[in-house]
């Protein structure tokens, strides 16, 4: 089996957002919400089912710039909110829902998702999680493998910037991204393998398809994966991102970093690369502590502030962003570093009101306004707790 990488001559963009459909009480819809909404959107491209009926995936077309992707997402989200409102539903974007339970959800009618549950059982049934994926066009499969290997170093950066899943089924998990840990339970999800070249990737695919483990690349749910059909590298690391402003900034970070790494590869320069155990540990630190994490910077075990590493990377990417026309959006990363992520803001709201339904109201407002919730008094109330909600006996 020969897998052809349909390369792109330009670093085009595509963005996919898995949004949640909630009712007036703030709970996730447990009926056939997505089917009803999608029926009204039939003929309008860019909306599709996901695993559960409480989820709709919003997808851009191939976009030339971050600004074009942002405009398209804004238009589609506004349309989705309009249709959902006709049924009394609201739309939010975050890595998990603050209090709804996976056992109450309805599976979408797509046979692919029923096969997934049949194959993976409990690990798939509890996937009440939501993410944002970005695609960046690359020219060749070899380029995609080299860039993908190097992007592993930056997995904690993307995860920390997007953390938005502190709560799981009504309890504070103590993590900034509980979604990332739930997703890793699938057999082909989580950290990517480091491949030597495009040929080795093809051998990997032949093995798993031949063994009946997967049917296509769509069932390899790595944090970073080449997408041969689209001719892209796909970053699947991020939690659901709560505001359009932050989505645009993290999309710009994706595009600039991929382009910068591809240029290094094509110039014969050394590529950033950590050992697999270092990448795994750094991802865990980002999932637990978010922007407050200290990550391992080298194989001697020296550490540095993840917040500082992100800031340094943004500065390094600024010339690339200027060429790509997304410097303003990239600089929005500095705002995330200053304000904190959705995980912080959700905890702020909960500490203020003591009611997780108010957290959902806050998420509705952020998606509709397109902007993060401003600080009320200049001091962060949220952050990362020393531990989550205790269980009996602790």
Briefly say what this structure is.
The protein has 394 residues and is of the alpha+beta class.
Descriptive overview:
- The longest helix has 23 residues.
- Strands 1, 2, 3, 4, 5, 10 and 11 form a 7-stranded antiparallel β-sheet that branches. Strands 6-7 form a two-stranded antiparallel sheet.
- Helix content is 45%, strand content 14%.
- The chain has a single domain, classed as 2-Layer Sandwich (Creatine Kinase, Chain A, domain 2).
- The model has no long low-confidence stretch (mean pLDDT 95).
- The radius of gyration is 20 Å and the shape is globular.
- The protein contains 14 helices and 13 strands.
Jot down its keywords.
alpha+beta, two-stranded antiparallel ribbon, Creatine Kinase, Chain A, domain 2, seven-stranded antiparallel sheet, about 400 residues, globular
């Amino acid at each position: 089996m020969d897998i052809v990488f349909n390369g792109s001559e330009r670093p085009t963009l595509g963005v996919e957002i898995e949004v949640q459909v909630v009712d007036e009480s703030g709970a996730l819809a447990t009926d056939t919400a997505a089917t009803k909404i999608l029926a009204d959107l039939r003929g309008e491209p860019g909306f599709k089912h996901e695993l559960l009926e409480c989820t709709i995936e919003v997808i851009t077309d191939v976009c030339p710039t971050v600004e074009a992707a942002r405009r398209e997402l804004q238009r589609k989200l506004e349309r989705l909110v309009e249709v959902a409102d006709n049924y009394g539903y609201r739309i939010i974007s975050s890595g998990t829902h603050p209090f709804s339970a996976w056992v109450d959800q309805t599976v979408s009618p797509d046979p692919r998702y029923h096969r997934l549950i049949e194959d993976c059982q409990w690990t798939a049934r509890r996937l009440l999680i939501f993410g944002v994926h970005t695609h960046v066009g690359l020219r060749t499969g070899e380029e995609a493998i080299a860039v993908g290997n190097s992007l592993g170093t930056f997995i904690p950066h993307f995860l920390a910037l997007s953390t938005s899943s502190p709560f799981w089924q009504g309890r504070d998990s103590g993590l900034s991204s509980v979604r990332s840990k739930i997703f890793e339970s699938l057999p082909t999800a989580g950290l990517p393998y480091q491949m030597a070249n495009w040929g080795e990737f093809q051998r990997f695919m032949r093995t798993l398809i031949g063994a009946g483990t997967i049917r296509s690349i769509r069932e390899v749910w790595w944090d970073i994966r080449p997408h041969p059909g689209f001719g892209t590298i796909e970053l699947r690391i991020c939690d659901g991102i709560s505001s359009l402003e932050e989505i645009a900034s993290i999309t710009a970070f994706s595009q600039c970093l991929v382009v910068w790494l591809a240029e290094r590869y094509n110039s014969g320069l050394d590529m950033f690369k950590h050992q697999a155990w270092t990448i795994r540990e750094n991802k865990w630190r980002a999932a637990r502590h978010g922007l407050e994490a200290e990550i391992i910077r080298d194989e001697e075990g020296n550490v540095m502030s993840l917040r500082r590493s992100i800031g340094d990377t943004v500065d390094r990417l600024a010339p690339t962003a200027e060429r790509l026309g997304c410097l303003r959006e990239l600089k929005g990363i500095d705002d995330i570093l200053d304000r904190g992520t959705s995980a912080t803001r959700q905890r702020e709201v909960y500490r203020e009101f003591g009611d997780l339904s108010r957290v959902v109201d806050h998420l509705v407002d952020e998606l509709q306004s397109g902007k993060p919730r401003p600080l009320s008094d200049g001091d962060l109330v949220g952050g990362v707790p020393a531990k989550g909600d205790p269980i009996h006996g602790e």
